[in-house]
Amino acid sequence: MKKLISSLHGDKVIWALVAFLAVFSFMPVFSASSNLAYMRHGSGNALTYLIKHALHISIGFFIIYKVHKVPYHYFRGLSRIALPIVWALLLYTLVKGTVIEGANASRWIQIPFIGVSFQTSTLAAIVLYVFVARYLSKTRETPLTFKNSLFELWLPVFITLGLIFPANFSTAALIFSMVIMIAFIGKYPLQYIAMILGLAVAAAAFFILLVVAFPKAFPNRVDTWKSRIENFTSDKPDEDDYQIEKAKIAIASGRIYGLGPGKSVQKNFLPQSSSDFIYAIIVEEYGLVGGLSVLFFYILLLFRFVIASHKANTLFGKLVVIGLGFPIVFQALINMAVAVELLPVTGQTLPLISSGGSSVWMTCIAIGIILSVTKKEEEIAAEEEDKKRRDEALQRLIDKQIKEEEEAELAAANEENEEDNPMNAVLNK
User: Residue 127 to residues 76, 82, 85, 181, 255: CA-CA distances in angstroms?
Assistant: First the structure.
């Protein structure tokens, strides 16, 4: 175990927080999956889902370990190569993607031979964040104009978001918000950001008008957008309203200390109890104390990302940590806000806790890249400490040599004085 821990590099606090959230996830996922097991197999035995979740988490940590070993500057060039590949995957998902777990949008593709569903928008987000960080760090060395950035930066951003938006509005909005935040932190001119926001609003309005004018193009999505907005602003009941009501009942039932692990009642009624609404199950079983504890650890993770970004020795490293770390925490906050009806239903999972395969793995890739940045900081600090020790050792040798030479010179001077002293000659006689 000590050998394994010693092989883990990077920010140890981030490692610990990620490990804690992942280990904690086994209890609510095991409890919440019983409803899924009952509906699919009629047995209610969630052991299969627990093993599946354990496999996903194990593969996720293997991904973190392998990714954090890669020097983070490699991802700089890799983002440019991966972006066209991501566009092709998003386009394929939009046209021939699969629908799983009752969703009414094609957000997944089936990976051949292994039968695993993969949500391409999560990979697109990671690649896009690194791409934006690369561009903003590069512009520090060359003059920046709006015309150049419009084609070199924002055109790829809008292409990516345009391929995500029709099937997953909430994810596209989250990604765009994070890109704007990265641009702001990367000191992209504020007047340019305002212009981009105007273009984004105009493009979104045009797309919505186009879809409303031709509803047969995306029939399910138009109905979903309308129902969610109407449900959030009125008391009209529908499926999302049903889920929110059950989530609020679960949260209210938990009170201060909760009903206890595995004793949730609403998990039998919430359709997405192990993924989108797992936070409601956590509060029901572990109470307000458990819910606030989970929130605390995500906030602590956010602060650790800020510290890691501050310590990064390059602008690219700073922006990568911010761009990959903040969305993880913000997605968690959105998931919690949906459970308490502060936001309309978005379909965002609780990172590192909700069940899932590709979503867990994509989060682990992001964390691995962040740890790669912090590992570089450690290497630089270790090199500086080693240099300091070498300099101190060299200085001690020099001081010792100087002292020996001074003593030798003093001894030689004393001998000369004794030879030149006439009293010595008299005493010798």
Answer: 10, 7, 10, 16, 41
